[in-house]
Amino acid sequence: MYRMSMMTFLIDDSLKLDRLKCMQLALVHDLAESIVGDITPFCGVSKEQKRNMEMKAMEDICKLIEPKGNQIMELFLEYEEGKSSEANFVKDLDRLDMVLQAFEYERRDNCISKHQEFFDSTEGKFEHPFVKSIVQEIYNQRNQSISNLDKQVNGDSKNNFNLKNDPTTSR
Q: What ranges in the chain are assigned the alpha helix state H?
């Protein structure tokens, strides 16, 4: 949530988005996880169960902080339902954050390609051109790291990895 909120500072007037609204949405979007945890597709919890668990958590949190709880719940629902261009932009930031974190782990642990599933799960889902450009740069850097690793292993410039060149479009 913090990194996504900080990313909203990159928003300038040319993007035609409400920076404050984006920051608020980024801060609220995963608030339920403070109670239910980060439920991933690998947890064996259905989408409906996850939504119900998160909604209950948000209701509990919002009751504790009345009267501001209503505003927090409205922001959460706006994000979840993609009710605004700001909500959709923040959804893109959430995906960007996941890809960036996976790439950071790969570089830190010297295991490029280890977290491919995070890249695959976001393929074709980015919508905003600004976010797409950042994701493309991550892919470029990742592909360069793979190419450099391949050169070290194989002693040549052939790339034996089969990564997609454009993560922002679906197949």
A: 2-7, 19-28, 33-36, 47-64, 69-81, 85-108, 116-122, 129-154
Separation between Cα atoms, residue 119 and residue 139, nearest integer Å? 9
Q: Which two tokens stand for residue 165?
A: 């060149």
In angstroms, the CA 154 to CA 131 distance is 34
List, for residues 84-135, the tens digit of each pLDDT value: 999 999 999 999 999 999 999 999 998 888 999 999 999 999 999 999 999 9
Determine the length of the chain: 171
The string of pLDDT tens digits covering residues 37-50 is: 988 777 889 999 99
d(CA 139, CA 10): 20
Q: How many CB atoms lie within 10 A of CB 35?
A: 13
